[in-house]
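Translate sequence into C-alpha coordinates.
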Amino acid sequence: MDIALPEARALIANPFVVGRPLTGVSSSLYVGREELFAWFDENLSVTGQPNALLLHGPRRIGKTSTLYQLVEGDRGRPLRENRGRLLFPAYIDLQRYAGRPTDEWLRRLARDICRRLNTSNLERSIPDSAVPGETAFAAFDRCLDRLEETLPDDGLILLAIDEFEEIRAGIEAGTLETEVLAYLRSQIQHRARIVFLLCGSAALLEPFWAPLTNLTAHYEVSPLDFDQSMTLIRRPIAGLLSVDDEAVDRIWQFAKGHPFLIQTICHRLVSFANRRHERRPLAAGDVARVIDQLVIEGYTNDGLAGGPEEVHP
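Result follows.
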Protein backbone atom coordinates (compact mmCIF):
# COMPACT_ATOMS: atom_id res chain seq x y z
CA MET A 1 0.00 0.00 0.00
CA ASP A 2 1.35 3.44 -0.95
CA ILE A 3 1.87 5.77 1.97
CA ALA A 4 1.70 9.49 1.18
CA LEU A 5 4.58 11.59 2.45
CA PRO A 6 3.71 14.25 4.99
CA GLU A 7 3.16 17.63 3.38
CA ALA A 8 6.40 18.94 4.89
CA ARG A 9 8.35 16.25 3.02
CA ALA A 10 6.73 16.75 -0.37
CA LEU A 11 9.24 17.78 -3.01
CA ILE A 12 9.22 21.38 -4.17
CA ALA A 13 9.14 21.84 -7.93
CA ASN A 14 12.34 23.85 -8.37
CA PRO A 15 11.33 27.06 -10.18
CA PHE A 16 14.83 28.47 -10.72
CA VAL A 17 16.56 28.22 -14.10
CA VAL A 18 20.31 27.81 -14.51
CA GLY A 19 22.08 28.79 -17.72
CA ARG A 20 19.07 29.03 -20.05
CA PRO A 21 17.21 32.09 -21.28
CA LEU A 22 13.86 32.72 -19.61
CA THR A 23 11.12 31.68 -22.01
CA GLY A 24 7.65 30.17 -21.69
CA VAL A 25 6.74 29.33 -18.09
CA SER A 26 10.15 30.42 -16.80
CA SER A 27 9.65 33.94 -18.18
CA SER A 28 7.86 34.74 -14.91
CA LEU A 29 11.35 34.79 -13.34
CA TYR A 30 12.24 37.88 -15.36
CA VAL A 31 12.30 40.83 -12.95
CA GLY A 32 13.33 44.47 -13.08
CA ARG A 33 14.60 46.17 -16.26
CA GLU A 34 11.94 48.90 -16.18
CA GLU A 35 14.43 51.49 -17.46
CA LEU A 36 15.49 49.19 -20.29
CA PHE A 37 11.92 48.72 -21.50
CA ALA A 38 11.32 52.45 -21.21
CA TRP A 39 14.34 52.84 -23.53
CA PHE A 40 12.82 50.33 -25.97
CA ASP A 41 9.56 52.28 -25.87
CA GLU A 42 11.34 55.58 -26.47
CA ASN A 43 13.19 54.21 -29.50
CA LEU A 44 10.52 52.01 -31.08
CA SER A 45 7.42 54.16 -30.66
CA VAL A 46 8.70 57.20 -32.53
CA THR A 47 7.15 58.36 -35.77
CA GLY A 48 9.30 57.95 -38.84
CA GLN A 49 12.25 55.57 -39.07
CA PRO A 50 13.48 54.42 -35.63
CA ASN A 51 17.13 54.18 -34.71
CA ALA A 52 18.98 50.91 -34.97
CA LEU A 53 19.72 49.65 -31.45
CA LEU A 54 22.65 48.02 -29.65
CA LEU A 55 22.16 46.03 -26.45
CA HIS A 56 25.37 44.97 -24.72
CA GLY A 57 26.55 43.70 -21.36
CA PRO A 58 28.45 40.95 -19.54
CA ARG A 59 27.71 37.33 -20.32
CA ARG A 60 24.79 35.78 -18.46
CA ILE A 61 23.46 39.18 -17.38
CA GLY A 62 20.07 38.50 -19.01
CA LYS A 63 20.43 39.91 -22.52
CA THR A 64 18.91 36.91 -24.29
CA SER A 65 16.05 36.73 -21.80
CA THR A 66 15.41 40.41 -22.47
CA LEU A 67 15.21 39.77 -26.21
CA TYR A 68 12.71 36.96 -25.63
CA GLN A 69 10.61 39.28 -23.47
CA LEU A 70 10.67 41.86 -26.23
CA VAL A 71 9.77 39.34 -28.96
CA GLU A 72 7.23 37.12 -27.20
CA GLY A 73 6.97 37.90 -23.48
CA ASP A 74 4.52 39.87 -21.38
CA ARG A 75 6.95 42.74 -20.91
CA GLY A 76 7.16 43.36 -24.64
CA ARG A 77 3.44 43.04 -25.35
CA PRO A 78 2.62 46.78 -25.03
CA LEU A 79 5.27 47.53 -27.66
CA ARG A 80 4.19 44.73 -30.00
CA GLU A 81 0.54 45.73 -29.78
CA ASN A 82 1.00 49.50 -29.85
CA ARG A 83 -2.07 50.80 -31.68
CA GLY A 84 -0.04 53.54 -33.28
CA ARG A 85 2.56 51.17 -34.72
CA LEU A 86 2.33 47.37 -34.68
CA LEU A 87 5.67 45.68 -34.09
CA PHE A 88 6.53 42.40 -35.84
CA PRO A 89 9.59 41.01 -34.04
CA ALA A 90 11.88 38.10 -34.91
CA TYR A 91 14.60 36.66 -32.65
CA ILE A 92 17.72 35.39 -34.43
CA ASP A 93 20.64 33.63 -32.72
CA LEU A 94 23.80 33.87 -34.83
CA GLN A 95 25.39 30.98 -32.94
CA ARG A 96 23.15 28.75 -35.06
CA TYR A 97 25.17 29.73 -38.15
CA ALA A 98 28.66 29.28 -36.69
CA GLY A 99 31.12 27.82 -39.21
CA ARG A 100 28.85 28.40 -42.23
CA PRO A 101 30.37 29.97 -45.36
CA THR A 102 28.98 33.32 -46.53
CA ASP A 103 26.59 31.95 -49.14
CA GLU A 104 24.97 29.46 -46.76
CA TRP A 105 25.10 31.93 -43.85
CA LEU A 106 23.10 34.57 -45.72
CA ARG A 107 20.57 32.15 -47.16
CA ARG A 108 19.93 30.49 -43.80
CA LEU A 109 19.60 33.89 -42.14
CA ALA A 110 17.08 35.04 -44.78
CA ARG A 111 15.12 31.80 -44.43
CA ASP A 112 14.98 31.99 -40.63
CA ILE A 113 13.96 35.65 -40.59
CA CYS A 114 11.10 34.87 -42.95
CA ARG A 115 9.99 31.83 -40.97
CA ARG A 116 9.95 33.79 -37.72
CA LEU A 117 7.93 36.59 -39.27
CA ASN A 118 5.54 34.27 -41.12
CA THR A 119 4.29 33.27 -37.68
CA SER A 120 3.23 36.91 -37.29
CA ASN A 121 0.83 36.57 -40.25
CA LEU A 122 3.10 38.21 -42.78
CA GLU A 123 3.06 36.54 -46.19
CA ARG A 124 5.86 34.20 -47.20
CA SER A 125 8.58 36.36 -48.67
CA ILE A 126 11.06 33.84 -50.02
CA PRO A 127 10.42 30.60 -51.93
CA ASP A 128 11.43 27.22 -50.51
CA SER A 129 13.92 26.77 -53.36
CA ALA A 130 16.52 29.27 -54.54
CA VAL A 131 16.04 31.29 -57.71
CA PRO A 132 18.48 29.95 -60.35
CA GLY A 133 21.59 32.09 -60.57
CA GLU A 134 20.58 34.32 -57.67
CA THR A 135 23.38 35.25 -55.29
CA ALA A 136 22.95 34.92 -51.54
CA PHE A 137 23.11 38.71 -51.20
CA ALA A 138 20.31 39.09 -53.76
CA ALA A 139 18.24 36.41 -52.01
CA PHE A 140 18.61 38.23 -48.70
CA ASP A 141 17.59 41.52 -50.33
CA ARG A 142 14.53 39.86 -51.86
CA CYS A 143 13.54 38.44 -48.49
CA LEU A 144 13.60 41.82 -46.76
CA ASP A 145 12.02 43.60 -49.75
CA ARG A 146 9.06 41.25 -49.64
CA LEU A 147 8.69 41.55 -45.88
CA GLU A 148 8.54 45.32 -46.10
CA GLU A 149 6.00 45.10 -48.92
CA THR A 150 3.69 42.82 -46.93
CA LEU A 151 3.70 44.94 -43.76
CA PRO A 152 0.46 46.68 -42.84
CA ASP A 153 0.67 50.45 -43.18
CA ASP A 154 1.26 50.89 -39.44
CA GLY A 155 3.69 47.97 -39.13
CA LEU A 156 7.37 47.83 -38.25
CA ILE A 157 9.70 44.81 -38.30
CA LEU A 158 12.17 44.35 -35.43
CA LEU A 159 15.10 41.99 -36.07
CA ALA A 160 16.59 41.11 -32.68
CA ILE A 161 19.97 39.59 -33.59
CA ASP A 162 21.70 37.85 -30.67
CA GLU A 163 25.36 36.80 -30.33
CA PHE A 164 26.37 39.39 -32.93
CA GLU A 165 30.07 38.80 -32.19
CA GLU A 166 29.77 35.53 -34.11
CA ILE A 167 30.20 37.55 -37.32
CA ARG A 168 33.72 38.56 -36.31
CA ALA A 169 34.50 34.99 -35.28
CA GLY A 170 33.42 33.81 -38.74
CA ILE A 171 35.50 36.45 -40.51
CA GLU A 172 38.60 35.67 -38.46
CA ALA A 173 38.10 31.94 -39.07
CA GLY A 174 37.92 32.60 -42.81
CA THR A 175 34.39 31.24 -43.28
CA LEU A 176 32.66 34.61 -43.67
CA GLU A 177 33.68 37.26 -46.18
CA THR A 178 34.54 40.69 -44.79
CA GLU A 179 31.98 42.15 -47.23
CA VAL A 180 29.24 40.89 -44.91
CA LEU A 181 29.93 43.83 -42.56
CA ALA A 182 29.54 46.47 -45.28
CA TYR A 183 26.42 44.71 -46.56
CA LEU A 184 24.80 44.68 -43.11
CA ARG A 185 25.75 48.34 -42.64
CA SER A 186 23.85 49.17 -45.82
CA GLN A 187 20.81 47.20 -44.63
CA ILE A 188 20.81 49.01 -41.28
CA GLN A 189 21.10 52.40 -42.96
CA HIS A 190 18.53 52.05 -45.70
CA ARG A 191 15.72 49.74 -44.53
CA ALA A 192 12.95 52.21 -43.71
CA ARG A 193 10.56 49.72 -42.08
CA ILE A 194 13.00 47.31 -40.44
CA VAL A 195 14.77 48.05 -37.14
CA PHE A 196 17.93 46.12 -36.35
CA LEU A 197 18.58 45.36 -32.68
CA LEU A 198 22.13 44.04 -32.28
CA CYS A 199 22.92 42.20 -29.06
CA GLY A 200 26.17 40.91 -27.59
CA SER A 201 28.98 41.52 -25.15
CA ALA A 202 30.95 44.70 -24.54
CA ALA A 203 33.29 43.50 -27.30
CA LEU A 204 30.81 45.14 -29.70
CA LEU A 205 32.15 48.50 -28.49
CA GLU A 206 35.62 47.75 -29.90
CA PRO A 207 36.82 49.72 -32.98
CA PHE A 208 36.33 46.67 -35.23
CA TRP A 209 32.56 47.18 -35.00
CA ALA A 210 32.50 50.98 -35.28
CA PRO A 211 31.16 51.10 -38.88
CA LEU A 212 28.04 49.29 -37.62
CA THR A 213 27.70 50.36 -34.00
CA ASN A 214 28.15 54.05 -34.85
CA LEU A 215 24.74 53.74 -36.51
CA THR A 216 23.03 52.56 -33.31
CA ALA A 217 21.67 53.87 -30.03
CA HIS A 218 23.42 52.00 -27.19
CA TYR A 219 22.16 50.49 -23.94
CA GLU A 220 24.19 48.49 -21.41
CA VAL A 221 22.34 45.74 -19.53
CA SER A 222 23.41 46.02 -15.90
CA PRO A 223 22.87 43.88 -12.77
CA LEU A 224 19.64 43.96 -10.78
CA ASP A 225 19.40 46.29 -7.80
CA PHE A 226 18.89 44.98 -4.28
CA ASP A 227 15.07 45.11 -4.30
CA GLN A 228 14.90 43.39 -7.69
CA SER A 229 17.34 40.73 -6.47
CA MET A 230 15.23 40.14 -3.37
CA THR A 231 12.15 39.72 -5.57
CA LEU A 232 13.96 37.13 -7.70
CA ILE A 233 15.07 35.25 -4.56
CA ARG A 234 11.76 35.19 -2.72
CA ARG A 235 8.87 35.47 -5.16
CA PRO A 236 9.32 32.13 -7.05
CA ILE A 237 9.16 30.13 -3.79
CA ALA A 238 6.64 32.25 -1.89
CA GLY A 239 4.39 30.01 0.21
CA LEU A 240 6.79 27.07 -0.16
CA LEU A 241 10.05 28.21 1.40
CA SER A 242 10.99 31.37 3.22
CA VAL A 243 14.40 33.02 3.03
CA ASP A 244 15.50 34.99 6.07
CA ASP A 245 16.95 38.47 5.71
CA GLU A 246 20.52 37.43 6.49
CA ALA A 247 20.35 34.79 3.75
CA VAL A 248 19.12 37.38 1.25
CA ASP A 249 21.96 39.72 2.27
CA ARG A 250 24.50 36.92 1.83
CA ILE A 251 23.23 36.16 -1.69
CA TRP A 252 23.35 39.89 -2.52
CA GLN A 253 26.92 40.24 -1.24
CA PHE A 254 28.12 37.43 -3.49
CA ALA A 255 25.95 37.82 -6.60
CA LYS A 256 25.86 41.64 -6.67
CA GLY A 257 22.62 41.58 -8.63
CA HIS A 258 23.80 39.15 -11.31
CA PRO A 259 20.66 37.14 -12.20
CA PHE A 260 22.59 34.05 -13.33
CA LEU A 261 24.37 33.77 -9.97
CA ILE A 262 21.19 34.48 -8.01
CA GLN A 263 19.32 31.74 -9.84
CA THR A 264 22.23 29.29 -9.51
CA ILE A 265 22.38 29.84 -5.75
CA CYS A 266 18.61 29.65 -5.30
CA HIS A 267 18.32 26.51 -7.46
CA ARG A 268 20.82 24.76 -5.19
CA LEU A 269 19.10 26.01 -2.05
CA VAL A 270 15.78 24.52 -3.17
CA SER A 271 17.52 21.27 -4.06
CA PHE A 272 19.11 21.28 -0.61
CA ALA A 273 15.69 21.75 1.03
CA ASN A 274 14.28 18.86 -1.02
CA ARG A 275 17.12 16.53 0.00
CA ARG A 276 16.67 17.21 3.70
CA HIS A 277 12.84 16.79 3.44
CA GLU A 278 11.97 19.81 5.53
CA ARG A 279 10.66 23.31 5.04
CA ARG A 280 12.51 25.36 7.64
CA PRO A 281 13.48 28.88 6.50
CA LEU A 282 16.64 29.11 4.43
CA ALA A 283 19.37 30.73 6.53
CA ALA A 284 22.69 32.47 5.94
CA GLY A 285 24.53 29.26 6.79
CA ASP A 286 22.72 27.44 3.97
CA VAL A 287 23.74 30.17 1.53
CA ALA A 288 27.34 30.09 2.76
CA ARG A 289 27.61 26.37 2.04
CA VAL A 290 26.27 26.84 -1.48
CA ILE A 291 28.60 29.76 -2.20
CA ASP A 292 31.61 27.84 -0.88
CA GLN A 293 30.85 25.07 -3.36
CA LEU A 294 30.38 27.53 -6.22
CA VAL A 295 33.77 29.09 -5.47
CA ILE A 296 35.37 25.65 -5.55
CA GLU A 297 33.75 25.11 -8.96
CA GLY A 298 35.17 28.38 -10.26
CA TYR A 299 32.21 30.76 -10.04
CA THR A 300 33.00 34.28 -8.88
CA ASN A 301 31.10 37.54 -8.53
CA ASP A 302 33.57 39.57 -10.64
CA GLY A 303 32.51 38.82 -14.19
CA LEU A 304 31.84 35.11 -13.66
CA ALA A 305 35.45 34.11 -14.29
CA GLY A 306 35.53 30.36 -14.48
CA GLY A 307 32.40 28.27 -14.26
CA PRO A 308 31.04 26.16 -17.09
CA GLU A 309 30.20 27.83 -20.39
CA GLU A 310 26.56 28.29 -21.31
CA VAL A 311 24.98 28.71 -24.73
CA HIS A 312 23.22 31.95 -23.79
CA PRO A 313 24.13 34.79 -21.46
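Note: Residues 33-220 form a domain with the Rossmann fold fold (CATH 3.40.50.300).
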